[in-house]
Design a protein that fits this description.
The protein is α+β, with helices and mostly antiparallel strands and 171 residues long. Helices cover 33% and strands 18% of the residues. The protein has 5 helices and 4 strands; from the N terminus they run αααβαββαβ. A 4-stranded antiparallel sheet has the order 2-3-1-4, with helices on one face. Strand 2 and strand 3 form a beta hairpin. The longest helix has 13 residues. The N and C termini lie far apart (47 Å).
């Protein structure tokens, strides 16, 4: 029996973009830019009261529109200046085998982002490391020890030109 993924969240009701009010979009734009911004400043920017903004934020979090409130760290400042983009192809796309690969990637703290994609490869990984010496044991753990990896290709980022999780919002 597989253990449940510790990162899984409760299912929130599906909210369509059409269900988001103009005020919601303004609030979302403000918290995307700085989620520590005082409610009164957000309220002033969208022409609502602070309690109204607080209620809307609570609803947006409950509905899963705001999925996390996090601080974005500077990778170099915390000793992880190396960014790798890894293309991974699997041997078998049987659901159980794909799930095993997914779980392995989910459990690896070095992987910042993981995408199951269409095309010539199956997964794209964004990995941060302190140095290349850390990569060899990581490849053994992720790609060799667990099996079902046919091929992987590593691209080393020379410069982080843009790093963002902000979404464009049409207001």
């Amino acid at each position: 029996m597989k253990k449940k993924n510790s990162r899984s969240k409760r299912k929130a009701p599906i909210v369509r973009a059409a269900d988001l009010h103009y005020f919601d979009l303004g609030i979302l734009a403000a918290v995307q830019a700085n989620n520590l911004q005082p409610l009164r400043e957000i309220a002033r920017s969208v022409n609502l009261s602070a309690p109204a903004v607080a209620r809307r934020l609570q609803r947006l979090r409950a509905e899963g529109v705001i999925s996390q409130d996090v601080s974005i760290l500077d990778a170099a400042a915390v000793g992880r200046p190396l960014t790798l983009i890894v293309e991974v192809s699997v041997e078998s796309e049987l659901v159980e085998k794909l799930d095993d690969v997914r779980e392995r990637f989910l459990a690896s703290p070095e992987i910042q982002q993981c995408y199951y994609v269409t095309g010539e490869v199956d997964f794209i990984l964004i990995i941060t490391l302190a140095n290349m010496e850390e990569y060899e044991p990581l490849t053994r753990r992720l790609f060799f020890a667990g099996g079902n990896i046919k091929h992987f290709k590593t691209l080393v980022a020379m410069q982080r030109v843009k790093v963002s999780m902000s979404l464009p919002l049409n207001r």
